[in-house]
Specification:
Elements lengths: L1 E2 L3 E4 L6 E4 L15 E5 L8 H7 L6 E5 L9 H14 L6 E6 L1 H13 L5 E6 L2 H7 L4 E6 L2 E8 L4 E3 L10 H17 L2 H9 L3 H5 L2 H21 L16 H10 L6 H18 L5 H13 L14 H8 L12 E6 L2 E5 L4 H13 L1
Parallel strand pairs: 3-10, 4-5, 4-6, 6-7, 7-10
Antiparallel strand pairs: 1-2, 2-3, 8-9, 11-12
Helix pairs in contact: 2-3, 4-5, 4-8, 5-6, 5-10, 9-10, 9-12, 10-11, 10-13, 12-13
């Protein structure tokens, strides 16, 4: 991994690619010879499509394909529609798919690009904080099944990622909070100094308008994730990349049970709280550390009062967790903290302890 002032390179051999932090201006340095399909998350995000197309040079044709925003669109059927749109445009193996939007747009477009004619290039142009700090980097693509999130997916690295922080100026408050959940995840699981930096950082409303703070947390989050991905691209080296799933096993379960009405980042925040309470119960970290986590979540509007799951039963959460992709031989594999900045995989937790932690968070 090589880092410059405005660029971070994810080192993956022939699949290496740059992350640009200075907006869309670097698109001009990536000429495209083939046809381009620009996949846009919704009509609101579509307002930015002109900025992207204006920066493209040399493309034979550019077509914009808009789909309804939200997790409900992240299906195999929608991916097939993208591929059909590419066929109508005459896209061949030299085509480029571009994802413009949040995490759903990136996952969906990357998945479609990975299966279209056995794989074509794609770019990530994230417009949400969550996508900028997490889902646009690392090459995980996927669509959902009724049983759970991302149960159909591939590893397909983007050819480039272009991060334009000006997009965040119009991001709704709840989406900004959801993105901060993934930022906090890095601090808890990987870097205690980063966690402390967030503790010292501006309060939520001030943070939304602090471009220097936003650029700092986006760059640091991408750097932390890129380092993990470079070590374990395909999640095959022990538990290296799985550490990035802190909060996700619990979170994906409540997200599913809510019918995807609970935003992904909010669900992850709920999951980090549950994992933190389980870690206290197992003696992996102390109450003081769990309190620090809860205080930081609350600072960015991700506390328990913001992440309620009314009507959800603990037993239903545990049952949904059993569909998690990390599980092995029917046993839950949970990412649990062992201190601020430290986490590891635990696969021998009794159901009774998991249920107790879930109940503690649901009923507190």
């Amino acid at each position: 991994m090589k880092e410059g002032e405005n660029t971070l390179r994810v080192e993956l051999g022939r699949r290496s690619y740059p992350i640009y932090f200075d907006g869309l201006r670097q698109i001009c340095s990536h000429p495209v010879d083939g046809r381009i399909i620009l996949v846009v998350a919704d009509a609101v995000t579509a307002q930015y499509s002109g900025l992207v197309t204006a920066a493209l040079t040399g493309a034979k044709a550019v077509s914009t394909w808009v789909f309804p925003a939200g997790e409900a669109s992240k299906t195999l059927a929608t991916a097939a529609e993208i591929c059909q749109a590419a066929l109508r445009l005459g896209c061949g193996r030299d085509a480029l798919f571009i994802a413009l939007g949040g995490g759903v747009a990136g996952d969906l477009t990357g998945f479609a690009a990975s299966i279209y004619m056995r794989g074509v290039d794609f770019w990530q142009v994230p417009t949400s904080l969550l996508a900028m700090v997490d889902s646009s980097v690392g090459g995980k693509t996927g669509v959902d099944l009724p049983n759970g999130k991302n149960l159909l997916g591939t590893f397909h690295q983007p050819a480039a990622v272009f991060i334009e922080t000006d997009f965040l100026r119009t991001l709704p408050v709840e989406h900004m909070a959801a993105g901060m959940a993934e930022v906090i995840k890095y601090g808890v699981a990987l870097d205690g100094d980063f966690f402390a930096f967030l503790e010292r950082g501006p309060e939520f409303l001030a943070a939304r308008g602090d471009q220097d703070f936003l650029r700092s947390i986006i760059r640091k989050s991408c750097c932390l994730k890129a380092g993990i991905v470079a070590r374990d691209e395909f999640e095959t080296h022990g538990a290296v990349r799985e550490l990035l799933n802190f909060g996700h096993t619990f979170g994906h379960a409540v997200e599913l049970l809510s019918g995807y009405r609970l935003p992904h980042g909010v669900a992850v925040a709920w999951g980090m709280t549950a994992a933190g309470r389980l870690a206290v119960r197992l003696g992996r970290w102390g109450e003081a550390e769990a309190v620090r986590l809860q205080a930081l979540l609350a600072k960015y509007r991700l506390g328990r009062e913001h992440c309620g799951c009314p009507g959800v039963a603990a037993e239903a959460v545990l049952a949904a967790m059993r569909h998690d992709k990390k599980n092995r031989s029917g046993r839950l594999r949970l990412v649990l903290p062992a201190g601020i900045g430290q986490a590891s995989i635990v696969d021998d937790v009794a159901d009774a302890d998991v249920l107790a932690a879930i109940r503690e968070v649901l009923h507190d």
